[in-house]
Automatic annotation (TrEMBL):
Protein name: Sortilin N-terminal domain-containing protein
Organism domain of life: Bacteria
GO terms, biological process: xyloglucan metabolic process
Region of interest: Disordered: 520-543
C-alpha cells in the first residue's frame, strides 16, 4: 500500500511538472501565415557573382548573386525568378550539367570576390529538377566554393574547387573530385591551409585535362593580403591524379590571384591574367600552358585582382576575349589590344556569350545583369532583379512611411512602404552616391542625412529646397586625424531633433544638424597602432579606406535618458556614458565568453529600462562564426548571453520591441530570428523570407511593421507584428485565441500607379484590408470550420474563408458585405463583382469550429483624413442599398423568366400538341428578357448593346465604389432605370397572368408539373 501511494504521488508530481512546462512554438507553428513582403528595389539591383547559360537553349540563363541567391531566366535574360530562397544566399558558382542541362544544376555557395563586406556560404547544392528543389551535397565548412566542373561525357564525374575561408586558415581548401555524382568526394589537390582554389577549369575538348589556379590570401578587419609563395597555376592531364605547375614564362617571385580561360574552339590557346609585382598582366599560351608570353599589362586587366579575376573567351572565336574589371575589357585580336565595354554600372564580375548569336552577351556587375546585342558596344540593364545590398535602413513616421538606406556601390535612397499600383522603381529617390551606408530622417524637418564610404561625404539634404551641404566632422588643428569606419556610424537624437551624432575614434555631436561639431569623448577604441595605416592589398596595393580600423561602429542614445549614450567599436570596446559624455566606462571586460577585440556590430538601447541595452558582436572578420548577443540591465556591469543553438549564423543587428520587452528581432547572416520570451527560445522566420543576410532592422511604431535591410534581397517588410506581442503561455494553452487589433481605417483612396513595364520589378503593397488574427493550438483538419462577420444583432454581413493552420492565422476582410445576386445573361457584368462597403462601427467575428463557437470583435473607422459628412454617408448607404435591391429584384425577375422558358421549351420537345401555348410563352418571355439583359454577343469584339442589367449594374458599381453621396445625375439615372425595372415587372405579370397561366392550365390538364420557381428569399440564398 505504501509503495502504491509513493508511485501515485510521483505520477501526480510528474503530471503537474509536465503541465507547468512552457509551450514552445517553433517556426511556422509560431508565425502561422504572418508573411514578409519583398519590395526591392531593383532599379539599382546588386552585385552579380556568376552567370551561366544553358549549353543548347539560349533562352535559359542562371545568375548567382553576392547575397541574393540564384535566379533563373527562361526568356534570354528579359526577366528572372528566384530559385534558391531557402539556402545560403551568398553564391560562388553555378554550373549546369552539360549532359542534363534542363534538370541538373549545381551551386557552390560563398562569394568569391573577396571584398571586406562579402557574406559566406554553407556548402554545395544540387538540383535535379531545374532549380525547383535542392539537396546539399556536402562541403558545409568550405565557406567559399569558386568552381564546379562536370565531365561532359559522364555526369557522375564532378570536380569542385574550394577557395575556403577568407578570414582564417582552412583545411577544407583544395580541388575535390567525385565519381559517384556527389555521394563521396576525394581531395585531389591541396597546398596548405592558407591557399585555396580561386579558379578551376576543364578543357572542353578533353575532360581529363584540368587547370587549377591556387591562391594564397588572407583578409583581416584592418587589411588584406593577396599572394605568396604558394600561389600557382597547376595542370593535370590524367583527370586529377597528378598535377604540375606550368609557370614557364610567368614572372618570378611571389604571385597572387590568377584569371584563367581556355579557348573552347582551340584548346591549345590558354589565357591567364597573373597578379605579380613585376610584369603583371595578360599571358597567352599557344601550347596548352607549356609556355607563356606576356601580351598586355593594361590597367583594366590588372586592377584589383581580388575583385576582378574572370576571363572569358568567345565560344567560337578564340580572338575574342573579355576580362572583368572596373569597366570590363574586350579584345578582338587575341589579347593584343583591349577596349572598355559599353556604358553600364562599374565593377564587372562575369561575362557569358550567347550560344547562338555571336554578337550577344550577358554581363554581371555590381549593379546587376546587363545584356548586349552588339558585342558589348551598348548594353541594357535587366530591371527585375531585386538583389540590392543594404548596409543600413531606417524609417520615418509619414503615412505611408518611407524607408531610407544605403547600398553597396549603389548610393543612398529613400522610397515609400506602399504606392499606388505597387512600389515601382520611379518611387525611389537618390540621396547619395558611392557606397551608401546610414541614411536618417530628421525627426521634424524635411531633412535627410546620408553618407558615403568612410565619411568622405556626410550630406545634409533639404528635400524642399533640393539643397545639399557636406557636414562631416573635420580634424582640428593640433589634434589627431580622424579615423572613420568605411561604414561610419551616425545617429539622430530621440530628445533634441537637431542633435546629430557621428563616430570616428571619438564621439562627435552637433546641436545644429552638422553645422558645428564638438567631441564629447576621448578615443573610445583600443587605438592599437598595429591595426592602423597598414598598406593593404599584398602584391597589389589596395588602400581604399575600407580597412580603416579601431573606429566607432555603432552609437545608441537612450530613448529614455538623453545623457545615456552607448558606443561600440570595431575593435571590441563597449563604452557607455551616463552624463552626456563627461565620463565613459568600458564595459566589455564584464562580458563572459566573448573573445577579446570582437567587433561590436550593434548596440540597442532599451525603450523600457534606461539601464538596459543589447549588444551584438560579430567575430567573422577574425574567422569566428559564433553568434554573440548579450543583454545588460545594469549599465554594463553584468551581461548575459541570450543566444541559443536555434540561431544560425553570426549576428549583425537586434531590435527590441517597443511594447513587449521580451519580444526581440535578430538579424544574422542567414536570416531573421525572433524570440517571444526574451531569448530563451528563438525561431527562424521563413514565410516568404529568404535566408539572406539581415544587416539592419527597424520597427515602424505607427504601423507595427518590422522593416529589414538585407544585404542581397533589398528591403523586406513584415506587416503588423503586433500579434507576436500578445503571445504568452495563457494564449498558447487555448484552443483558439483572437488577438486584439487596432481599429481599421477604410481609406478613401483610389489612384492608378502602374507605370512600370511587364519586365520591371514592382514591390508589393501591404494589404489595405482589415485583419482578423487568431491563434489555433492545433491545425484544423476534420469537421466544418467557418468564419462569419456579423452586425451587433447577429445578422451576417459576410462569410470569409478561415485559416486553419497551427499558430497565427490572418484572414483579410476588405470591408465589403456580400455582393448582389446578378441577373443571368450572355455576358458578365462588372457590377456583379462589387459588394457594398460595411459602414464604420464594431462587428462581431464568429469562428465556428466543429460544434464550438469563438467570438471576437473588429472595429472599422472612417478615413481620418476624410472630408465627407455623416449625412452624406447616410445618403450614400441608402442609395447603394436601393440599387443593390434593384439588382437583386432584376436577378429574381430574370430567374422567373428563365425558369418558365426552360419549362416551356422542355414541354415543346416532348409534346408537339403543346406548340400553341408553349410558343406563346417562349416568344413573349424572350422578347421581355431581351430588354432586360444582353442575350447575344460577347464581352469584347462582338459586344451587344447594353440592356437594363448592364446599365443598372454600371450605375450600382459606380455608386457602391465611391465614398461621397451620389450626384444628381446618378440619382436621376437611378430613377430612369428603376422605372424600366418596374415596367419589366409589370410586363412579366401580364405574361404570367395570360400566356404562362394558359401553359400552366395545359400542364395540369396533361398531368405535368408547372415550372419550379423558388421564392425570392430562397433564390437569393441558394
Amino acid at each position: 500500500m505504501y509503495k502504491k501511494t509513493i508511485v501515485a504521488a510521483i505520477c501526480i508530481l510528474y503530471s503537474i511538472s509536465i503541465q507547468s512546462q512552457d509551450i514552445v512554438l517553433k517556426g511556422k507553428e509560431l508565425f502561422g501565415n504572418l508573411e514578409a513582403r519583398q519590395i526591392g528595389p531593383a532599379l539599382m539591383s546588386g552585385r552579380i557573382i556568376d552567370l551561366e547559360n544553358h549549353p543548347t537553349n539560349s533562352k535559359v540563363l542562371y545568375a548567382g548573386t553576392a547575397g541574393g541567391g540564384v535566379w533563373k531566366s527562361e526568356n534570354a535574360g528579359a526577366s528572372f525568378t528566384s530559385v534558391f530562397d531557402d539556402h545560403a544566399q551568398s553564391i560562388g558558382v553555378v554550373a549546369i550539367d552539360p549532359n542534363d542541362p534542363d534538370k541538373t544544376v549545381w551551386v557552390g555557395t560563398g562569394e568569391i570576390w573577396t571584398r571586406n563586406s562579402v557574406s559566406i556560404g554553407d556548402g554545395l547544392y544540387k538540383s535535379s529538377d531545374g532549380g525547383a528543389n535542392w539537396k546539399k551535397m556536402g562541403f558545409e565548412n568550405s565557406e567559399r566554393i569558386s568552381s564546379i566542373e562536370i565531365n561532359p561525357k559522364n555526369s557522375n564525374e564532378v570536380y569542385v574547387g574550394v577557395m575556403g575561408a577568407l578570414w582564417g586558415d582552412s583545411p577544407d581548401r583544395g580541388v575535390y573530385k567525385t565519381t559517384d555524382g556527389g555521394k563521396t568526394w576525394n581531395k585531389i589537390l591541396y597546398v596548405n591551409e592558407k591557399t585555396g582554389v580561386n579558379d578551376l577549369i576543364m578543357d572542353p575538348n578533353d575532360p581529363n585535362t584540368l587547370y587549377a589556379a591556387m591562391w594564397e590570401f588572407r583578409r583581416t578587419a584592418w587589411g588584406f593580403n593577396s599572394g605568396g609563395p604558394e600561389s600557382a597555376l597547376y595542370k593535370s592531364t590524367d583527370a586529377g591524379k597528378t598535377w604540375n605547375k606550368i609557370h614557364n614564362g610567368f614572372p618570378k617571385g611571389d604571385l597572387g590571384r590568377f584569371a584563367i580561360a581556355i579557348a573552347p574552339s582551340n584548346s591549345k590557346i590558354v589565357f591567364a591574367v597573373v597578379e605579380s609585382k613585376e610584369n603583371k598582366g595578360l599571358y597567352r599560351s599557344d601550347d596548352a600552358g607549356a609556355n607563356w608570353k606576356l601580351l598586355n599589362g593594361d590597367f583594366g586587366l590588372v586592377v584589383r585582382p581580388f575583385y576582378f579575376s574572370r576571363l572569358v573567351v568567345h565560344p567560337k572565336n578564340p580572338d575574342i576575349l573579355v576580362k572583368g574589371g572596373l569597366f570590363g575589357s574586350i579584345s578582338r585580336d587575341g589579347g593584343k589590344t583591349f577596349k572598355n565595354l559599353g556604358d553600364m554600372h562599374a565593377d564587372i564580375h562575369d561575362i557569358v556569350f550567347d550560344i547562338n548569336n555571336p554578337d550577344a552577351m550577358y554581363v554581371g556587375t555590381d549593379g546587376g545583369v546587363y545584356r548586349s546585342w552588339d558585342g558589348g558596344a551598348t548594353l541594357d540593364m535587366v530591371d527585375n532583379l531585386p538583389v540590392s545590398q543594404f548596409y543600413h535602413i531606417s524609417v520615418d513616421n509619414e503615412e505611408p512611411y518611407n524607408i531610407y538606406g544605403g547600398l553597396q556601390d549603389n548610393g543612398s535612397w529613400w522610397g515609400p512602404s506602399s504606392s499606388p499600383g505597387g512600389i515601382e522603381a520611379r518611387d525611389w529617390k537618390r540621396v547619395g552616391v558611392g557606397d551608401g551606408f546610414r541614411v536618417l530622417k530628421h525627426p521634424s524637418k524635411n531633412i535627410i542625412y546620408s553618407e558615403m564610404q568612410g565619411a568622405q561625404n556626410v550630406w545634409r539634404y533639404d528635400v524642399d529646397k533640393n539643397y545639399t551641404k557636406n557636414v562631416q566632422p573635420l580634424p582640428i588643428k593640433g589634434e589627431a586625424d580622424l579615423r572613420f569606419n568605411w561604414n561610419a556610424p551616425m545617429a539622430v537624437s530621440n530628445h533634441q531633433p537637431d542633435r546629430f551624432y557621428m563616430g570616428s575614434q571619438f564621439l562627435h555631436v552637433s546641436e545644429d544638424m552638422g553645422d558645428n561639431w564638438k567631441k564629447i569623448s576621448p578615443d573610445l577604441t583600443t587605438n592599437d597602432p598595429a591595426k592602423q595605416d597598414k598598406e593593404s592589398g599584398g602584391i597589389s596595393v589596395d588602400k581604399s579606406g575600407a580597412e580603416t580600423h579601431t573606429t566607432i561602429f555603432t552609437i545608441a542614445e537612450s530613448p529614455i535618458d538623453q545623457k545615456i549614450i552607448w558606443v561600440g567599436t570595431d575593435d571590441g570596446n563597449v563604452q557607455v556614458t551616463q552624463d552626456g559624455g563627461v565620463t565613459w566606462t568600458n564595459t566589455v571586460a564584464n562580458i563572459q565568453g566573448l573573445p577579446k577585440n570582437t567587433w561590436v556590430y550593434h548596440i540597442e538601447a532599451s525603450t523600457h529600462n534606461k539601464a538596459t541595452a543589447y549588444a551584438v558582436f560579430d567575430g567573422h572578420a577574425s574567422g569566428d562564426m559564433t553568434t554573440y548577443v548579450y543583454k545588460t540591465s545594469d549599465f554594463g556591469k553584468t551581461w548575459k548571453s541570450i543566444v541559443t543553438d536555434e540561431i544560425i549564423g553570426f549576428a549583425r543587428n537586434i531590435q527590441e520591441d517597443y511594447v513587449n520587452e521580451d519580444l526581440l528581432y535578430l538579424g544574422t547572416e542567414f536570416g531573421l530570428f525572433i524570440t517571444i520570451n526574451g531569448g530563451k527560445n528563438w525561431s527562424r522566420f521563413t514565410n516568404n523570407m529568404p535566408a539572406t543576410a539581415v544587416h539592419f532592422i527597424d520597427l515602424q511604431k505607427k504601423s507595427n511593421d518590422l522593416v529589414l535591410g538585407t544585404h542581397g534581397r533589398g528591403v523586406i517588410i513584415i506587416d503588423d507584428i503586433s500579434p507576436l506581442r500578445q503571445i504568452n503561455q495563457e494564449v498558447l494553452i487555448k484552443d483558439v485565441h483572437f488577438f486584439d487589433t487596432k481599429s481599421f481605417a477604410i481609406k478613401e483612396e483610389g489612384g492608378f500607379g502602374g507605370g512600370s513595364t511587364e519586365l520591371q520589378f514592382v514591390g508589393d503593397n501591404p494589404s489595405a484590408s482589415a485583419k482578423i488574427i487568431y491563434y489555433l493550438k492545433k491545425r484544423h483538419t476534420f469537421g466544418k470550420m467557418t468564419l462569419s462577420i456579423q452586425d451587433q444583432n447577429g445578422n451576417e454581413i459576410v462569410s470569409l474563408v478561415p485559416g486553419k493552420s497551427k499558430g497565427i492565422n490572418i484572414v483579410d476582410w476588405n470591408f465589403r458585405k456580400k455582393a448582389p445576386k446578378v441577373a443571368a445573361g450572355k455576358t458578365f457584368t462588372f457590377g456583379g463583382f462589387t459588394a457594398p462597403r460595411a459602414p464604420s462601427g464594431t462587428y462581431k467575428v464568429i469562428l465556428t469550429k466543429g460544434k464550438k463557437q469563438y467570438e471576437s470583435t473588429i472595429t472599422l473607422q472612417n478615413d481620418p483624413k476624410s472630408l465627407i459628412t455623416e449625412n452624406d454617408r447616410i445618403v450614400h448607404r441608402k442609395i447603394t442599398k436601393e440599387l443593390f435591391d434593384d439588382m437583386e429584384d432584376l436577378a429574381y425577375l430574370v430567374y422567373k423568366i428563365d425558369q418558365n422558358i426552360k419549362k416551356a421549351e422542355g414541354i415543346a420537345k416532348k409534346d408537339p400538341a403543346s406548340q400553341k401555348v408553349t410558343s406563346a410563352v417562349i416568344a413573349t418571355l424572350n422578347a421581355l428578357k431581351e430588354t432586360l439583359v444582353v442575350t447575344t454577343g460577347d464581352n469584347y469584339v462582338n459586344e451587344a448593346e447594353p440592356q437594363l442589367r448592364e446599365k443598372l449594374s454600371k450605375l450600382y458599381g459606380e455608386v457602391a465604389d465611391q465614398f461621397e453621396k451620389p450626384s444628381f445625375s446618378q440619382i436621376e439615372n437611378k430613377e430612369v432605370l428603376e422605372k424600366r425595372l418596374n415596367e419589366g415587372k409589370t410586363a412579366y405579370e401580364k405574361i404570367n397572368n395570360k400566356q404562362i397561366a394558359k401553359l400552366n392550365k395545359y400542364l395540369e390538364k396533361s398531368g405535368n408539373t408547372t415550372a419550379e420557381i423558388l421564392d425570392k428569399e430562397k433564390f437569393l440564398t441558394k
